[in-house]
Every structure is written in C-alpha cells, then in structure tokens.
C-alpha cells in the first residue's frame, strides 16, 4: 500500500491561490483541512474535492483578523484529533493606495492577518511538528517582500516580515525534520488583486501569473523542501536586478512612479 501523505492545513482556502493550493494538494493525495471566513465557499470546495479524489476534507470557519483567531483554529484542530503534517499559511489582506489615505484599522487588519496570525500558527503547529520530528510549512509570501512598494506600503512590510521569519525558521528547524518554504509570486490573477474596473494590479514588464501556476509551483517547492521560491522567470530576473542595485536607485524609481499618479 502507498504510504499515507501528511494531512495539509490551508488557510485562506476559499479563493485565489488558497483554493488552487487545495486542489493541487488534493490531486496529489493529501487529506485536507481548509480554513477561511467564507465557510459556504469552503463547503462547496470541500465537497468537490471529496467527490473527485475520495479524500478526507475538513472545513473550519476561521477569522484570523481577531486576536485569538489562530489559537482557536489550532485548538479546534486538536479537539478534532487531527494531525497537521503540512501547514500552508496562505491567508492575506492588502489595501492599495497612499498609506495615509487608508483607514488605520485596515492597516491593523493587514498586519494581524499577514504577520501576527501567520506567526502564531507557525509557532503552534511548528511545536507540534518538532515533537514529531517531521513537518513542512509553506508561507505564501510575495515579491514585494524584497523592496518597499509605494501604494502597498503595509502589505509589502508584512511580506518582508514573512520572508525574514521563514528563512530564519528554515535554518533553525532543519535539524528537527521541518522544512519552511517562502513562496514569492508577483501579482496574481485573483480577487485580491482585482480592481474596480475589472482589471488587475500588475507589475511593470512582468506578466500576471495564474493562481493555478503559483499553486503547482508552490507544491513542488514545498515537497522538495526549498527555503525560497520566486514564481516566474520575469519575477526572478527583477529580484536579481533589485538585489544588485543600491537602495537609493529603487527609492528614486518609487518616487517617480508615485509622482506620475498625482
């Protein structure tokens, strides 16, 4: 008989990259725990994956923007006697615009979901994994983690935190049988990047990836235990260029781009 694959918890699985990650993990035979605020969409996805792949799919409503949201999710999974072998921290929020024009509460929610809740879930499930001496963690990050992004200031700042945390944890936990992967796509065709006119936020000179492409690449990177994976050759080239330029160059470019918006 084939060895049973580890059960995978995916947060933010009700749409976008999270939904496609659920499909990809299911296609490879992983039982799933899907968590998000939109439980009706999770239920529909769960039923689809159960029928298509004959898997166990558990659906949990979770609001990671509230202070105890991550702790509640961990407790609910423990009470259900489920073992999370792979943690996928995919939940995320963003707000586009000048930092001072965006409501402060919205910035706080971005910080809570993108950074605090991710750190809490990683700590809670990471301790479980260390006791078992095995596990994988996939943190959905962003290419915005590599430099400041005018118009997405708080979002990019949280992703810089996620990248730094992920790389440190990968080094700390290699000896404990735990891999940590930071997945860094650019802008992706999802609801989160969709504008009011129906178009999507985009990076200059870099084509949008689909959520499916990101999910497939993210799965492979996670199972190979890669610490960092940047999606798309265009994004990798841009980040290589960023790395080899003085910071003042990108500060100047950012100021020019923002001035053109005025």
Secondary structural class? alpha/beta
Query: How much is the average pLDDT?
Result: 88
| Tally of separate helices | 8
H/E element order:
EHEHEHEHEHEEEHEHH
Oligomer classification: single chain
Helix percentage: 40-55%
Tally the beta strands. Answer: 9
| Main sheet characteristics | 7 strands, parallel
The CATH class name reads Alpha Beta
Strand order in space, largest sheet: 3-2-1-4-5-6-9
Q: What sort of overall outline do the alpha carbons produce when their principal axes are compared?
A: globular
| CATH topology value | Rossmann fold
| Count of the separate structural domains | 1
Q: Nearest-angstrom radius of gyration?
A: 18 Å
First CA to last CA: what distance?
63 Å
User: Which stretches of 5+ consecutive residues score pLDDT under 50?
Assistant: none
CATH architecture: 3-Layer(aba) Sandwich
Instruction: Kindly report the name of the CATH homologous superfamily.
Output: NAD(P)-binding Rossmann-like Domain
Beta strand %: 5-15%
Question: Can you offer a commentary on this structure?
Answer:
With 262 residues, the chain is α/β, with parallel strands linked by helices. It has one domain: NAD(P)-binding Rossmann-like Domain (Rossmann fold), CATH 3.40.50. The protein is 48% helix and 15% strand. The chain is built from eight helices and nine strands. The strands form two sheets. The chain has a seven-stranded parallel β-sheet, with helices on both faces. A two-stranded parallel sheet has the order 7-8. β4, α4 and β5 form a beta-alpha-beta unit. α1 packs across α6, α3 runs parallel beside α4 and α4 packs parallel to α5. The mean pLDDT is 88.
């Amino acid at each position: 008989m084939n060895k049973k694959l580890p059960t995978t918890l995916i947060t933010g699985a009700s749409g976008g990259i999270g939904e496609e990650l659920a499909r990809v993990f299911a296609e490879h035979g992983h039982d799933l725990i899907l968590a998000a605020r939109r439980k009706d969409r999770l239920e529909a996805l769960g039923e689809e994956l159960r029928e298509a792949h004959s898997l166990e799919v558990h659906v949990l409503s979770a609001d990671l923007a509230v202070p105890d949201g991550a702790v509640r999710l961990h407790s609910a999974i423990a009470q259900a006697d489920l073992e999370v072998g792979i943690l996928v921290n995919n939940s995320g929020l963003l707000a586009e615009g000048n930092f001072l024009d965006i409501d402060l509460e919205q910035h706080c929610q971005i910080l809570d979901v993108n950074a605090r809740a991710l750190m809490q879930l990683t700590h809670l499930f990471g301790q479980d994994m260390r006791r078992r001496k095995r596990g994988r963690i996939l943190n959905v990050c962003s290419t915005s983690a590599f430099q400041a992004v005018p118009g997405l200031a708080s979002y990019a700042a949280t992703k810089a935190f996620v990248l730094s945390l992920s790389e440190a944890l990968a080094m700390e936990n290699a000896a404990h049988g735990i891999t940590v992967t930071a997945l860094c796509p650019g802008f992706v065709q999802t609801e989160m990047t969709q504008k009011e006119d129906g178009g999507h936020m985009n990076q200059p000179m870099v084509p949008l990836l689909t959520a499916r492409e990101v999910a497939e690449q993210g799965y492979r990177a996670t199972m190979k235990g890669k610490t960092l994976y940047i999606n798309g050759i265009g994004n990798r080239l841009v980040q290589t260029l960023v790395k080899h330029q003085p910071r003042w160059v990108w500060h100047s470019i950012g100021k020019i781009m923002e001035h053109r918006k005025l």
